[in-house]
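> call design_seq(struct)
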């Protein structure tokens, strides 16, 4: 049977990095097995639906490069792909479940449930609507079928709950955690259909996965406690269960607790792939390459056997195996994420890097020709960690330093700077830039002085600090006139 997997987010806000990883693992598994990657929008909870979040999900996946094979925008033969549009499908299967005694009607008011919850929390610390207490609640198990139908016909408000039988060992299989055994006494009679007639996640996702012929369900660890409930539903219906894979949590950098937006705000890193309504920035806006972003998050919970951990998406597909997904939580490391991005930047082809520079500093093309642009690309590529660094790194080619690094100044102040700068200006003025380095070395040999002082002074004058690319190569790009002007500015500054 052809593998079919799904990513099923709820449009209740921006897509979290954990959601992107779930989508990625589904994508990788589908591509590795020549299967189909489905995007289903689980929007049964209309009260929590946030405007524009569905479109945001699509835009995020498109930016990342993991667009689905089937979705509301690319429908196949298993639609609709929004749960809110599948109500007629659910209605049929709800009736089947009720007929099979897998569920029952519950007429409990919100007030009575709240009172019962408050009392239970005082006595035991937790509330469960289950085999122990359902006989004391207002449901169809405690009245005749005739009375139940009469109440429904009269317009009484009700939910539909799962009818969990006591003392049954519920056996579920997970590809990572293997066999999961739970006694049914530990389970709750979960609400399957809300009072407004819409199914909850538990029922809708099982029906949808069956009807859409999903073969493998890859989702976050937070759904592992729900696995026995879903197992019972598959067994009630007599359907073949898909393979289940519950991915480990992505932990915050301390390793304590799930990665959250609060952690990101506190520590200065994004938790969303792209910007959300101009309120929160994403990895795109920070200057991450999509493939670098995917490369890093793929390794949050998955260990590659490849010698090189820097991989393209197609290379990750080849290496990906669910057997290499770990059980324990994966600690998020923003510094590592940036390092991975830097490695991807360094591997860009020259034309790709030049295109990035033109995108971030379009003003360069008004000043420099193609050959000079190529040289600029060569000089800064190895220093770019995030694409946003390009703007600052290119500033040295367009403008004199606005300020000088104080530590750099202190390092050269012990030199006879006035005379030295004059000598350097003379060297720049009288020599071809292509031979400037040789001229500097010859001058130092004749004067019996160290080369370091001249080079450091040149660097401070031209770029304002002692760090940066080869200063002679920078001078070749900016030209004599600009170099002389900057030397004069430094002379006046001191």
């Amino acid at each position: 049977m052809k593998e079919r997997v799904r990513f099923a987010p709820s449009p209740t806000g921006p897509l979290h990095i954990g959601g992107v990883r779930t989508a990625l693992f589904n994508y990788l598994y589908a591509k590795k097995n020549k299967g189909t990657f489905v995007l289903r929008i689980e929007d049964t909870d209309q009260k929590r639906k946030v405007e524009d979040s569905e479109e945001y999900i699509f835009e995020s996946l498109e930016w990342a490069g993991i667009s689905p094979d089937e979705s509301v925008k690319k429908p196949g033969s298993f639609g609709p792909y929004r749960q809110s549009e599948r109500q007629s499908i659910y209605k049929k299967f709800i009736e089947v479940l009720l007929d099979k005694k897998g569920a029952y009607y519950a007429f409990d008011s919100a007030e009575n449930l709240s009172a019962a919850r408050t009392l239970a929390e005082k006595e035991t610390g937790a509330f469960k609507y289950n085999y122990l207490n359902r006989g004391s609640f207002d449901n169809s198990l405690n009245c005749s079928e005739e009375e139940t139908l009469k109440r429904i016909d009269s317009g009484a408000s009700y939910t539909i709950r799962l009818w969990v039988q006591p003392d049954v060992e519920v056996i579920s299989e997970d590809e990572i955690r293997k066999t999961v055994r739970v006694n049914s006494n530990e389970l709750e009679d979960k609400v399957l259909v809300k009072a407004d007639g819409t199914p909850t996640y538990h029922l809708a996702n099982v029906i949808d996965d069956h009807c859409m012929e999903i073969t493998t369900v890859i989702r976050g660890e937070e759904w592992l406690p729900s696995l026995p409930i879903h197992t019972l539903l598959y067994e009630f219906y007599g359907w073949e269960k898909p393979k289940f894979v519950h991915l480990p949590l992505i932990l915050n950098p301390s390793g304590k607790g799930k990665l959250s937006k609060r952690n990101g705000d506190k520590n200065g890193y994004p938790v969303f792939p792209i910007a959300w309504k101009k309120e929160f920035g994403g990895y795109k806006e920070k200057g991450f390459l999509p493939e670098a972003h995917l490369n890093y998050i793929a390794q949050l919970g998955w260990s590659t056997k490849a010698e090189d951990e820097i991989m393209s998406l197609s290379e990750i597909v080849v290496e990906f195996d669910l057997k290499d997904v770990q059980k324990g939580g994966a600690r998020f490391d923003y510094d590592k994420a940036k390092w991975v991005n830097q490695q991807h930047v360094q591997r860009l082809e020259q034309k790709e890097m030049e295109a990035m520079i033109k995108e971030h500093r379009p003003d360069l093309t008004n000043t420099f020709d193609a050959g000079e642009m190529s040289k600029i690309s060569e000089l800064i590529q190895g220093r770019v960690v995030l694409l946003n660094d390009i703007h600052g790194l290119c500033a040295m080619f367009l403008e004199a330093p606005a300020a000088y690094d104080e530590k750099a100044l202190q390092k050269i102040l012990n030199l006879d700077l006035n005379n030295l700068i004059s000598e350097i200006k003379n060297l720049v003025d009288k020599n071809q830039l292509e031979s400037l380095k040789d001229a500097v070395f010859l001058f130092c040999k004749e004067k019996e002085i160290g080369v370091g002082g001249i080079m450091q002074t040149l660097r401070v004058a031209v770029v304002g600090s002692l760090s940066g690319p080869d200063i002679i190569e920078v001078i070749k790009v900016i030209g004599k006139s600009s170099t002389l002007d900057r030397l004069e500015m430094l002379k006046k500054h001191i």
